[in-house]
Amino acid sequence: MEFFDKVGKSALGSRLRLMTAVVTDDAAKIYELYGVDFVPKWFPVFYTLAEEREITITEIANEIGHSQPSVSKIIQEMIAAGLIEESAKTEDKRKNNVVLTEKGILISKKIKQQLEDIDVAIEGIIAESKHNLWAALEEWEFLLEQKSLIKRVSEQKKKRESKDVKIVDYKPEYQEAFRALNVEWISTYFEMEEADYKALDNPEEYILKKGGKILVALYENEPVGVCALIKMNNSEYDFEMAKMAVSPKAQGKSIGWLLGKAIAEKAKELGAKKIYLESNTILKPAINLYYKLGFEKVFGLETPYKRCNIQMELVL
Amino acid sequence: MEFFDKVGKSALGSRLRLMTAVVTDDAAKIYELYGVDFVPKWFPVFYTLAEEREITITEIANEIGHSQPSVSKIIQEMIAAGLIEESAKTEDKRKNNVVLTEKGILISKKIKQQLEDIDVAIEGIIAESKHNLWAALEEWEFLLEQKSLIKRVSEQKKKRESKDVKIVDYKPEYQEAFRALNVEWISTYFEMEEADYKALDNPEEYILKKGGKILVALYENEPVGVCALIKMNNSEYDFEMAKMAVSPKAQGKSIGWLLGKAIAEKAKELGAKKIYLESNTILKPAINLYYKLGFEKVFGLETPYKRCNIQMELVL
DNA sequence: ATTAATTATATAACTAGTTATGCAAATGTA
DNA sequence: TACATTTGCATAACTAGTTATATAATTAAT
């Protein structure tokens, strides 16, 4: 299939589907070849029954990796075909235990040789090929169990996008974004306070002129995240990290992390030994981020903000 | 999936189906993650259109390995979603050429980054694993194209069963089978003749006592094939191979081949240089077998049989 | 120039699975 | 002991494909 060479690995699903169709189509013909009156889709259920003697529908479904309704339907078909029967002698009346009939046992014997032939044929293909499909499927089952494809793709997305994020110094043109991004989250969770308006309306005067810093995260040249380093007086800390905000539209790009790291770096450059922050525990993702950045809880400082119920510090 | 360890390679179809489901389920989530309003099953069609600019439904189906009705339905859905449109400017009015709309082109650009991320994620899994699933699928596509699974299984069946066939010397207890197997095919295609009755009713006298041989093929201890080596007098040949018959129930076990080989071997043992046979060209499988055994056409000998329209010899 | 065969597509009916849901039996809990 | 929750199964409705078939347009053949 030339198509797959062009399209790349993202068509893996399609490629698998086609191979599945090729293999299962031939499976039907194989039963015919051996003169067995049997439908391929019955096989996993039938095999389990032949092994286990007596088992419930839900147990079968779990064993073979089908949904319960799928097994339910297959069981009904096989009962109609006379291969299995309900065994009734269970106490739990919800359960529908099934066993092979005489005819079923006969077919299971008849089928044995066929399965061996198929096994040999497939082993033959594996021997002819450089890459072992059977072993590869086993490995993939394990690896995707460990970490699903969607998880892996989303990690790759994050990694790539965070490369496209630039952290730059504040410029007057970013004042609007600095204000809007902060107002957005503050007014969602709390109420805007006096101290907020001062800093957000006039960052030059209230933050920069006092010796603080503001960093802006740009994605595709748009400001999508901001964070300030505010000079503290009469305190064991030189700076407070505050007014961190990331646009919800730009989530999943590790922008908070990148801003936090950059702010800590900047504080170090400015000679700080420790930085301080205030937050609220209802902001769970934020608190998580602070822990990841290395902040730890502290107690007892005074704060002008009502919304503060947790205080943290980062030793640089 | 423990099930697959127990059940063996014959469950390859089931295993493939499960892996396909795992991968395609995540594919849907991936489109969601990237905020693209897109159904995974559209992808192969969409990709082809994005590459080829303008192409008919049947061409797409062939390219991506789907059936034409499948593509037909997908096209309809994508038209409804506004991603593609009919391009009308074809002369052949049967054809329904389709192209991407503006919106489609936009999405194709949007999707590009996503495909790259998936590619990287899958490459990551491949790098983590010892057995390359992608490469294995490619190899299997090639190998099954060369020789299908059903062909391989049927060859294995034949091989195994021919091992269970024993070629033994004639004993009086096989007279009935010798007669019945021959009467079956002769009376199906021709009419029994005088010479047939003589040899079949009294093989001891008409074949063995005159220095001929009869071999019997046993499968599960039942006589399922017979073949005679008849002494010829006043001829360049020492023996004629005749009365070869195989039960239709025992077909596909190479019994004709095994009998023919054994008869030739026996003739050699008896000092013959060439053996001769008579047949009729309407018996195509038989003629094919004779060629495979090394017989070649000859002309001009006299024969007592009306049904003979081809004569052959094998140089030993 | 007809007629027959082929081609391109659409539609219907089927297949082998899925998820969602409802019901009855069994189990847990106050 | 009564009520809520959980479990096991069946059924309905859906999905992503298939094969079979009908129809119209085109091409080939007499």
Do you know the CATH architecture of the largest domain in chain A? 3-Layer(aba) Sandwich
Sheet with the most strands, sense and barrel status of chain A: 7 strands, mixed
The greatest interface here is:
A-B, 77 and 77 residues
User: What integer value in Å does the Rg of chain A equal?
Assistant: 32 Å
Number of helices of chain A: 13
What would the principal axes of the Cα set say about the shape of chain A? elongated
Low-pLDDT residue intervals, each spanning 5 or more residues of chain A = none
Topology-level CATH name of the largest domain in chain A: Aminopeptidase
Beta-strand percentage range of chain A? 15-25%
- The average pLDDT of chain A is 90
Order of helices and strands of chain A: HHHHHEEHHHEHHHEEEHEHEE
Number of domains of chain A: 2
With strands numbered from the N-terminus, the spatial order across the biggest sheet of chain A is 3-4-5-6-7-9-8
CATH superfamily grouping of the largest domain in chain A: Gcn5-related N-acetyltransferase (GNAT)
Keywords (chains A, B): DNA-binding, Transcription, Transcription regulation, Transferase
GO molecular function (chains A, B): acyltransferase activity, transferring groups other than amino-acyl groups; DNA binding; DNA-binding transcription factor activity
Domain HTH marR-type (chains A, B): 9-158
Protein name (chains A, B): Transcriptional regulator, MarR family with acetyltransferase activity
